[in-house]
């Protein structure tokens, strides 16, 4: 029993050391947002005054795709996407780009997220072909650097909080709707390996307490 306890404690300690020594290459992040459309075309119920909600889950690399100082671009892999207008939601997916800018130009911080995908909404005959989100702070005080923010500043810190949806109907006619974000947050999901590591650590602690 004592030997087994020692082995478990040793394994847990070794795995903890490895987890601190090897930084994670990506983070599973979920971007939740909501707001109201205030301009653009009206297509099958989409138009000014319509509320929208969305949730974008990505595996986002914590290092930018190239060396940068104040303008960093990240290319995350989409895990799941949902989008809804007037309380309706639907699954989708696609490629995207995420950019963090710190002190670009005369005191400008910004966070932008682009999604290029064919997301067919539950309102018939409408496909969301792309979406772009821009949060901009003209004072340049929101971000200290251009690294990927895992905890996001309050939305009220940004003077510009816009989002643009591009649509296509079943006749091939395009449409655009522009909205203002009323809420935006980033939620980080623990990686499965980290959850397993925590489980082993808890077992080791329990055995130590029992032995004590």
What integer is the average pLDDT? 74
Percent of residues in helices: 10-25%
Shape: globular
What amount of the residues lies in strands? Answer: over 45%
Order of helices and strands: HEEEEEEEEEEH
Which structural class best describes the helix and strand composition? alpha+beta
Largest sheet: 10 strands, antiparallel
Low-confidence stretches: 8-24, 87-94, 193-205
Please report the distance between the alpha carbons of the first and last residues. 13 Å
Word description of this protein:
With 212 residues, the protein is of the alpha+beta class. It contains 2 helices and 10 strands; from the N terminus they run αββββββββββα. Helix 1 (2-21) runs antiparallel to helix 2 (192-211). The protein has one domain. The chain has helices at residues 2-21, 192-211, and strands spanning 26-40, 51-61, 71-74, 77-85, 90-92, 95-101, 109-120, 126-137, 160-169, 174-189. The two termini are 13 Å apart. It has a 10-stranded antiparallel β-sheet with strand order 3-6-7-8-9-10-1-2-4-5, with no helix packed on it. It is globular, with a radius of gyration of 22 Å. The model is unreliable at 8-24, 87-94 and 193-205 (pLDDT under 50).
Topology, element by element:
Layout: H1 2-21, E1 26-40, E2 51-61, E3 71-74, E4 77-85, E5 90-92, E6 95-101, E7 109-120, E8 126-137, E9 160-169, E10 174-189, H2 192-211
Antiparallel strand pairs: 1-2, 1-10, 2-4, 3-6, 4-5, 6-7, 7-8, 8-9, 9-10
Helix pairs in contact: 1-2
Task: Output the keywords.
single chain, 212 residues, alpha+beta, 10 strands
């Amino acid at each position: 029993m004592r030997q087994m306890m020692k082995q478990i404690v040793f394994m847990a300690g070794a795995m903890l050391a490895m987890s601190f020594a090897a930084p994670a290459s990506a983070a599973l992040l979920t971007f939740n947002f909501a707001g109201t459309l205030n301009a653009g075309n009206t297509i099958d119920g989409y138009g000014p005054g319509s509320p929208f909600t969305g949730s974008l889950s990505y595996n986002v690399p914590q290092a930018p795709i190239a060396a940068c100082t104040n303008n960093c671009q990240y290319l995350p892999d989409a895990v799941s996407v949902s989008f809804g207008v007037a309380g309706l939601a639907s699954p989708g997916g696609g490629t995207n780009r995420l950019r963090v800018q710190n002190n670009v130009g005369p005191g400008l911080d910004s966070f932008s997220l682009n999604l290029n995908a064919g997301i067919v909404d539950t309102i018939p005959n409408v496909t969301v072909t792309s979406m772009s989100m821009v949060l901009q702070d003209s004072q340049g005080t929101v971000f200290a650097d251009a690294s990927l923010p895992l905890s996001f500043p309050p939305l009220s810190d940004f003077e510009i909080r816009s989002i643009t949806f591009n649509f296509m109907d079943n006749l091939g006619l395009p449409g655009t709707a522009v909205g203002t974000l009323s809420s935006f947050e980033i939620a980080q999901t623990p990686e499965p390996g980290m959850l397993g590591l925590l489980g082993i650590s808890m077992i080791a602690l329990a055995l130590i307490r029992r032995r004590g």
